[in-house]
Design goal:
The structure holds two protein chains of two kinds.
Chain A (H helix, E strand, L loop, with lengths): L5 E2 L1 H11 L28 H12 L4 E6 L4 H11 L5 E3 L4 H4 L3 H10 L4 E3 L7 H8 L2 E5 L2 E3 L4 E5 L14 E7 L3 E2 L2 H13 L7 E5 L4 E5 L2 E4 L6 E7 L3
Parallel strand pairs in A: 2-13, 3-4, 3-5, 5-8, 6-9, 8-13
Antiparallel strand pairs in A: 6-7, 7-10, 11-12
Chain B lengths: L9 H10 L1 H25 L2 H17 L1 H14 L3 E5 L2 H14 L4 E4 L3 H5 L2 H7 L3 E4 L2 H8 L17 H12 L7 H18 L2 E4 L3 E3 L4 E6 L3 H7 L3 E7 L3 E2 L2 H16 L6 E6 L12 E7 L22 H5 L1 H6 L10 H12 L1 H4 L11 H5 L6 H16 L6 H7 L4 H8 L4 H6 L3 E2 L2 E2 L5 H8 L10 H10 L4
Parallel strand pairs in B: 1-10, 2-3, 2-4, 4-7, 5-8, 7-10
Antiparallel strand pairs in B: 5-6, 6-9, 11-12
Helix pairs in contact in B: 1-19, 2-12, 3-12, 15-18, 18-22
The chains are: A alpha/beta, B alpha/beta.
The complex binds iron/sulfur cluster (SF4).
Chain lengths: 240, 475
């Protein structure tokens, strides 16, 4: 992609430097070692099982259903959850993990045979994908990183992993391999920061999603489901 | 100044606020809930003071090196194919955005909540360019369809409206025929707005934190409206105050944790979205074109002055939610989109003393705001500094005893307000206390004491006062 344009920068930055009483900075500024770093002590030393418990209890506070299953039972669990949400249409990411977790038979034959429409994100179909997501009753993605403390799934977009799958459908299901669970946002941010330091390009959209959409704008009453999904379920795969 | 709301003089606005009993009840209830949730969230972390110290250090470091980080940010946005416009003034920002809108031949624009676009008064410019502009944050949507009623709280803009009023507005403006149940109202708004997202030409957002190392912007919402605003229209314009930036993802994370806890008592809000440039090649959703507009509009004049720390602000409204004066007079009384203690400090700086010189007096200097602030801005000290500057410039305090009394409620109400003090205020006032009254002050306190002899804040802490006050019901 061609570089974008930058307008009016020099005078703007010079004004700032002048106000700060010095010349504009031209050499590299190193971040200091922050004196306090309490973010690293949260759930320090917790095992993966401990973190799973933290995640589970947090789910009840974010209006999100929590289901634990195994890789073998995942297809059945997923099927059941979608049925509880009233069936299709279903829209999913085009993500190799659906095959790894042996979910393709469900997506490609079982559901279609039961008249449940399934749309797997297909970049070549362009904006049509958004129409599918908009009409879908259920959106399904995997979680790339999962934050125990807040009950958050972190999603990195790419051509197969459309942004709208997680927020246009009526309901949302995240499949969470247990190994993706970390204590809190600190670990996810450190991971992304490392990527950048290594010269890798960050995803154009990184979504930190914590339960269904909600608002308290009317007399401070909590309403769940405003612009995004009205319900959400996390399915944790405990042996992956 | 365009951040201004309403044209009534200060004392009339305050009077209107005090006389609106629903508003006062709603404000008190909301403050109470948000304050309690913040305290619980802070308690859960255990070492809240360490978190605040970290937040302060990050913000101070970033402001001290602001030109460096803005340079890095703009380079990285451009590398990812985004365009960056540095706007010295509100007019420059509006002009640039207008040009983009005209070039794109845009007819419909969806927006997610953004204080800075309110501050620069962007919407009328867009409308004059022939665009329909739709606010998508539920609170802002309600205000917009009610003939642009101004916001009264930084985080909960429609706080002053009850559900019956909202129902009536929906009936009048949106052919709504259901009840005042919040669920039904929200569902109706959802239906109306869905179609707008899908047919809008441009999405406009604010920015909670820009990330210098990657050229990213971070948006924090509970509704998820910012995701729709940025995923569906072909062009995205993000407008940010120049100070809303952090060095890396790691500092963004810390400040987001402080923001969501301080604003709504949540560990994280439902949607935290980090966007970098326009969509990548091969992506289907996300904008084809991305513009970042970085706004100064008076901020650089604050840098290097005794007021610099106000730029540490992350707009969480924790200070608003503990302020006894805000509770008493409501958000509209401040005459600015920035209300409460942060508004009383910031509005005179961005909008000038001509319009806002009374605001630094809308405070009891109880220091509850300073104690609540997650990035440790010494708000009550900055209010005192304002008074000092005002008196230096004008030779006298701008507000008479009568107006001050009106502002803070008459008689018993005012002495109640002044009776509490938090741990900072009593010691700051100590030298000037005789018989438990503040008499003549020197320096910063001169302005204050010239208004009238106020009872000195006693050692009772704010929380105790708050509890007592609650028992006693409305003053
Ligand atoms: S001044 Fe502090 S407490 Fe008030 S809104 Fe800003 S960051 Fe929050």
């Amino acid at each position: 992609m061609a570089n974008g344009a930058i307008h009016n920068r020099d005078t703007f930055l010079q004004t700032i430097a002048k106000r700060l009483g010095r010349e504009p900075i031209t050499s590299t500024v190193l971040r200091p070692d922050w004196k306090h770093q309490p973010q690293w002590t949260v759930f320090q030393g917790y095992s993966q099982d401990d973190l799973l418990e933290v995640l589970k209890s947090q789910c009840s506070r974010i209006h999100t259903d929590f289901v634990a299953t195994t890789a073998d039972a995942l297809a059945a669990t997923l099927k059941q959850t979608v049925a509880q949400y009233g069936g299709g249409p279903v829209v999913t990411w085009n993500d190799p993990r659906f095959a790894e977790y042996r979910l393709m038979p469900l997506l490609q034959s079982e559901w279609p045979n039961e008249q449940i429409d399934v749309h797997i994100w297909d970049a070549s179909a362009g904006r049509k994908n958004i129409e599918w997501a908009e009409k879908a009753n259920v959106g399904i993605t995997f979680s790339d990183i999962t934050l125990a403390e807040s009950g958050t799934v972190v999603l990195f977009s790419n051509s197969g992993k459309g942004r709208t799958v997680s927020f246009l459908p009526q309901t949302y299901i995240a499949i969470i391999p247990k190994s993706t669970i970390v204590p809190r946002m600190t670990q996810a941010a450190a991971y992304i920061h490392k990527q950048i330091e290594n010269g890798e390009q960050v995803a154009s959209c990184i979504n930190f999603i914590t339960g269904p959409s909600n608002s308290a704008d009317i007399e401070m009453n909590l309403v769940v489901g405003v612009h995004g999904p009205v319900k959400a379920t996390y399915i944790v795969v405990t042996d992956r | 100044m365009s951040m201004k709301i309403g044209t009534d003089p200060f004392h009339e606005r305050v009077e209107t606020g005090i006389n609106n009993s629903f508003m006062r009840g709603a404000v008190a209830g909301a403050q109470e809930r948000l304050r309690t949730r913040r305290l619980e969230a802070a308690k859960e972390l255990g070492n809240w003071e360490e978190w605040r110290a970290l937040g302060e250090e990050i913000r101070q470091h970033t402001l001290e090196h602001l030109d460096y980080y803005l340079m890095q940010l703009s380079e990285n946005v451009a590398k990812r194919g985004g365009h960056v416009f540095f706007a010295q003034t509100a007019e420059e920002a509006n002009q640039y955005i207008r040009d983009v809108v005209i070039k794109k031949n845009a007819k419909k624009i969806v927006k997610s909540k953004s204080m800075v676009t309110e501050e620069i008064h962007l919407n009328p410019v867009l409308e004059a360019a022939g665009c329909e502009v739709i606010e998508t944050d539920l609170g802002e949507y309600i205000l917009q369809i009610d003939d642009h009623d101004p916001p009264s709280h930084i985080v909960a803009p429609a706080l002053h409206k009850n559900k019956e009023q909202i129902r009536d507005v929906f009936r009048k403006k949106l052919a709504y025929n259901k009840t005042e149940k919040p669920e039904e109202l929200a569902l109706h708004a959802r239906k109306m707005l869905r179609n707008e997202y899908l047919t809008a030409d441009i999405g406009i957002t604010g920015c909670n934190f820009a990330i210098a190392e990657s050229g990213s912007i971070t948006l924090v919402t509970n509704e998820g409206n910012a995701d729709l605003v940025t995923a569906l229209p072909k062009t995205q314009i993000t407008v940010m105050g120049m100070e809303r930036i952090v060095p890396t993802f790691e500092e963004m994370e810390v400040l987001v944790s402080l923001l969501t806890r301080s604003a709504v008592g949540q560990k994280l809000t439902s949607y935290i979205t980090v966007l970098t440039g326009p969509r990548d090649e091969g992506d289907v959703d996300g904008p084809e074109e991305f513009h970042l507009v970085i706004v100064d509009n008076g901020r650089s004049d604050i840098l290097g002055t005794e007021f610099q720390s106000v730029l540490q602000c992350i707009r969480c409204a924790a200070c608003v939610n503990v302020c006894p004066v805000y509770r008493h007079i409501g958000g509209h009384s401040y005459g600015s989109i920035y209300s409460g203690p942060i508004g009383a400090v910031l509005s005179p700086l961005l909008g000038g003393y001509d319009d806002y010189k009374e605001l630094p007096y809308a405070s009891t200097l109880c220091a509850a705001c300073t104690e609540a602030c997650p990035v440790k801005i010494p708000l009550h000290e900055l209010l005192l500094k304002h008074r000092q500057v005002i008196v230096e410039q004008e030779g006298k305090a701008p507000i008479s005893e009568k107006l001050a009394m009106k502002a803070f409620g008459l008689g018993a109400a005012s002495s109640l307000l002044y009776k509490f003090g938090s741990k900072v205020a009593p010691s700051a006032l100590q030298p000037f206390t005789a018989d438990q009254r503040i008499t003549k002050g020197v320096g910063p306190l001169k302005a204050w004491t010239e208004i009238r002899e106020f009872p000195a804040p006693n050692k009772e802490r704010f929380r105790d006062w708050f509890r007592e006050h609650k028992k006693g019901g409305e003053q």
